[in-house]
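Training component of the fellowship. As part of building independent skills, the fellow (R.M.) carried out the full modelling exercise for a liganded target. The chosen ligand was iron/sulfur cluster. The inputs are recorded below so that the supervisory panel can assess the work.
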Amino acid sequence: RSTQLSSAQTTRSTCPYCGVGCGVLIEHDGKHITGVRGDPEHPANFGKLCIKGTTLHHTADPALLSARAQYPALRPTRDAAPQRVSWDVALDTAAARFADIISRHGPDAVAFYFAGQLLTEDYYVFNKLAKGLIGTNNFDTNSRLCMSSAVVGYKLSFGMDSVPCNYEDIDHADCLFITGANPAFAHPILFRRVEAARERRPGQKIIVVDPRRTDTSELADLHLAILPGTDVALYNGMLHLALKKGWVREDYIAAHTEGFDAMREIVRDYPPAHVAERCGIREQDLEQAAEWFATSPATLSMYCQGLNQSTQGAHKNAALINLHLATAQLGRPGAGPLSLTGQPNAMGGREVGGLSNLLPGHREVANPEHRAEVARLWGVPSLPATPGKSAVELFQALADGSVKAVWIGCTNPAQSMPDLGLIDAALKRAEFVVLQDAYRHTETAAYADLILPATTWGEKDGTVTNSERRISRVRTAVPPPGEARHDWAIGVAFAHRLGHRLGREDVDALFAYDRPETIWNEHRETTRGRDLDITGLSYPLLEAAPRQWPCPEGYSEGLPRLYSDGRFPTPSGRARFVATTWQNTAEQTNARYPLQLNTGRLRDQWHGMSRTGTVARLYSHESEPLLHIHPQDLASRQLHDGDWLQVHNPRGKVVVRARASTTVPPGQVFLPMHWGANAMAGLGINALTTAAFDPLSKQPELKHAAVQVEALAGS
Ligand code: SF4
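Fellow's submitted model of the complex:
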């Protein structure tokens, strides 16, 4: 099978939106993309696409070229409009500014903030540039906002960041426990698989845990509408019941785990009546959920931001995995904890060490042996030991002046980060802001001193890894517009210029990449002998079909399920029960701010809408950001459905219209996360969210803030 199908007009690639990672067939005439279809041979979607996928070609319409960044542009002063410059001028300017700041303030005065949208090869180059060439661990990504709690949860429990399950497990599960996730909107093709499994297996039980009523919960046999942030109390309560009723698997616990006695002590304090009250659910529903979870022949959990975007995100993940371990619900078809990644390549970013605390091959910055291994692999004397700044910390450091320059790639922090007032102050204070993006009108572009045009879906070439550890090729169908360049190539060109200014004679050898495959080959070598070993996965093998990791040298297929033998990559070989106790959210409601704000995705939009916002059809579902609020909360404020409102708290204010809805209970409100300053008054939805973050995963609590809602003055 070649990169081109029999028709020269069709190129096989991967959808650039969510972590399901659907295969797509791009139809084109060699210059323009004319259509897109689902790839019937791709095991993530078997030819199906959701509405975002089926409208992808509209985002590449030539009429939308004006939205693309096509030429490098430099702002002579902060108040001036960006002026077109050559690539040489752009890259020399960037190298001069970075070299100057590094020489005056040290390597930790610069930082990089990228995205789970990048391809693995792009990630690899910029991560090496920051940690290997410059010598700073200040390389973080928007995946910090998405799945860093899941990473820590897996590491705490299993010893490694390895998703043990796969999508096929949905077909085999007797009980699906969907918690803190709304796949009907956020992972639609996986949800169709859930619906199909439901039809084929009438006895299958579906439990959905979500404070809101969603399209996902409509399918559930049991919907546990827990109070926001009470997840750990729920899971500990279910474990309490499993112990009390004799549903735990003592044989599995004894043979394959450690730390259970401490957890047994903790869950004594989670009796059903107490837990039901804490979570705001009925005791009999709690008991039913515990019974189905523990006693079904195979139980699969699917979870996402409801667990991750929390100041207790890592322990929410670990508490859920505790349940799987205690009831031996993992390591066989249909059973296990399947965390869903939000972005198309958040998983690939984890593999190359694309976070400020990670190094390639699932290694840790904090581990001296890991630093030495990577330094040897890269051929540099050493790697920096100073911890890098995570997403929120990085912007806090820009705001306080300790970081002077930031290079932002393929993401829009001025729309997507929490506490946008902080981000506004940070980007205004920064001495030098580079934005490398395919789009030129994002909220972040307004702050950029230098804009570098990057290629995007349909133009790029490389690999991505989806939520089930499956690596797929992303392939070029058409040339990029104007002078846009591939992200990895921008990184290589900048590295050479910066390296020479820093007097690094080794820079040419360090960045001797001429195409994505050479980067891939170096990347896979960093995984040799690690849990994610992909030394067997060459580009030619990936041309034939997407494959899962691990896939060591000598193998041609990956492993569909991990830990089937009951052995785990911890020092003892046993999985660990993590002592998890419930903690409340960082921000509590009070008399002034009595409503709990939850934010999340709409079905038809993606992130800050740079791409989906260009497609008229994708506004037919919801065309504006509406505040979903219970009719009682409207009535008590003499407000009505459709009224203009202001939603505010001490961090900021947004003006939106009301949607009276019983999908949220009284006391809670919901706003879609997609709208920023370009599409509404003020800084955007995230002006309201809090930058408080989990101390273990550093993931901010985007899903919990306290707000007040009032009539808009004069309306
Ligand atoms: Fe793309 Fe996700 Fe939709 Fe698949 S489910 S078509 S990957 S947005």
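The panel noted the following from the submitted structure. The pocket of iron/sulfur cluster is lined by residues 15, 17-18, 20-22, 45, 49-50, 52-53, 187-189 (CB under 6 Å). The mean pLDDT is 96.
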